Amino acid sequence: KAGVTQTPRYLIKTRGQQVTLSCSPISGHRSVSWYQQTPGQGLQFLFEYFSETQRNKGNFPGRFSGRQFSNSRSEMNVSTLELGDSALYLCASSFLGNEQFFGPGTRLTVL
Amino acid sequence: EDKVVQSPLSLVVHEGDTVTLNCSYEVTNFRSLLWYKQEKKAPTFLFMLTSSGIEKKSGRLSSILDKKELFSILNITATQTGDSAIYLCAVEAQNSGGSNYKLTFGKGTLLTVNP
After folding, report:
1. A105 lies within 8 A of chain B by CB
2. Which of A55, B73, B79, B93 sees the fewest Cβ atoms within 10 Å?
3. Which residues does chain A have within 8 Å of residue B50's beta carbon, measured at their own beta carbons?
4. How confident is the model at residue A36 (pLDDT cuts 50, 70, 90)?
């Protein structure tokens, strides 16, 4: 079974730009969660989608948004990028929502 | 707000040593506690614990949960250099809306095993 895939693996953007990250879950998994990981804050929950609906949301500003498609693939969008948005963005999929399988992440650098 | 605290933040040991990593939590409506190992990029699942006092074991790794004292430990015996990684603890709890669950992660313990 193929694992969780994320694209792109690396991104470099400048402040004020926007970015869209993509995540394809394991086949059959309907839950997709997004996390931001930085050295100082660790892994922080952004949001979770299940069957195309946002089911949970973390404490991030509205510049961070996401969506899920009918094939369970998910995208995350960050608008008006700030330097502090530089991080590893991880996507995780699960069947029932607890045991999560992580993708390799997208490393975003904001200059 | 849900809180998960791991200790120590980092640890350096020699091959063959035994290590114990700690995870304490304060959450509302606990459902499960999970341990992950993160080497280069993606965390990989190790254990899920839901009941107190029942040890989960996988090779040289084992973990146990104490729901009364609100903590879990992850033990690694006879450590090897390949055990070097960040070990993450996450707690699944019911969200404020009451209908769904979400994971809250600790900041991790960076374990370095020297030859």
Report:
1. yes
2. B73
3. none
4. very high
Using a CB cutoff of 8 Å and minimum separation of 24, what contacts does B30-33 make? B30/B67, B30/B91, B30/B92, B30/B93, B31/A98, B31/B92, B31/B93, B31/B94, B31/B101, B32/A98, B32/B91, B32/B92, B33/B65, B33/B72, B33/B89, B33/B90, B33/B91, B33/B92
Q: What is the pLDDT of residues B77-103, one digit of tens each?
A: 999 999 999 999 999 887 666 556 778
pLDDT in tens, A83-93: 999 999 999 99
Nearest alpha-carbon partner for B70 in B22, B114, B105? B22
CB contact under 8 A, B104 and A45: yes
Exposure of B12 in the CB half-sphere (CA atoms within 13 A): 2
Residue A56's closest chain B neighbor by CA? B102
